[in-house]
Design brief:
Length: 278
């Protein structure tokens, strides 16, 4: 009797163990299938990524080859205009053609994405000269830097950071102003930072729009532009985001404005003169 009971218990235990083993095998097979599907998905994603990279690289090379054609045509055309102007003693047209060629060469060139502050100032002076011709010297321009702060000119800044800010100052601050206006760039250095302030004595910004633009600076991915709203806030947000991507979130743009008095755009950069440190 005891033997029969023992055998029955052993048989029951064996059935339980067999059942557990079957469940184990089922789960193991299921996990293996899941891992196989995961690996296949990762492989597919990797192949798609590699294909996308190859296509993007191919498109970039095609775009680069195409972009080499248009600038040379533009530069050659401007040089022809300049030569013709000099031939007929039209000095103002010759100067304008030369300035335009320099401005476009700096803007279109893809050799450098990071430049010195001095190079940015040279480009801004060309840009402002172009606008002075266009608006018949309605605006004036000045760069103010204390002698002890001129070492800031060798510090690095993303290329074409200042031009969108100055453009906004002209078209949104000064163009609608009835009398003459002025754009001033001030440069100061602290122990760790370069501070650049682009100021205009234009019409200023309404408080509601100023808050939207400040919000765009803090949240560049957030859509703040409404229908019919001018896009100067987007340009400033793009500049600020480029600075943050290169130097870090401690740097970028701050915006201050008073309606009827003018606008200040503050740019904060680290003191870095060596591109190898980026």
């Amino acid at each position: 009797m005891k033997i029969a009971v023992t055998m029955a218990l052993l048989a029951s235990a064996a059935c339980v163990l067999l059942g557990l083993y079957c469940v184990y095998l089922k789960n193991k097979i299921k996990n293996m299938e899941f891992e196989r599907e995961r690996q296949l998905a990762e492989l597919e994603e990797k192949l798609q990524g590699e294909y996308s990279v190859r296509m993007v690289d191919k498109q970039a090379k095609l775009s680069a080859l195409q972009s080499q054609i248009n600038p040379h045509f533009l530069y050659n055309t401007l040089e022809c205009i300049r030569s013709e102007a000099l031939l007929y003693d039209c000095d103002s047209i010759a100067r304008m053609a030369k300035v335009l060629a320099s401005f476009f060469r700096y803007s279109i060139s893809k050799k450098e994405n990071i430049v010195t502050l001095q190079e940015e100032f040279n480009n801004i002076e060309n840009y402002f000269l172009i606008q002075s011709y266009r608006f018949d010297d309605k605006f004036s321009f000045e760069i103010r830097t204390a002698p002890e702060d001129r070492t800031a000119y060798s510090c690095l800044i993303p290329k074409l950071s200042l031009q969108p800010i100055v453009e906004n100052a002209i078209f949104h601050g000064l163009e609608t102003k009835p009398d003459k206006g002025k754009v001033t760039i001030r440069v100061e250095m602290t122990e760790t930072n370069v501070i650049i302030v682009v100021s205009d004595d234009g019409v200023g910004i309404e408080r509601e729009e100023l808050e939207r633009m400040r919000d765009a600076l803090k949240n560049p991915k957030k859509e703040t532009k409404t229908s019919g709203e001018r896009n100067n806030g987007i340009a400033l947000a793009n500049v600020s985001q480029r600075i943050k991507l290169i130097f870090g979130d401690d740097y970028g743009l701050n915006l201050y404005s008073t309606k009827g008095i003018g606008t200040d755009v503050e740019i904060i950069l680290p003191i870095i003169t060596d591109k190898a440190l980026l």
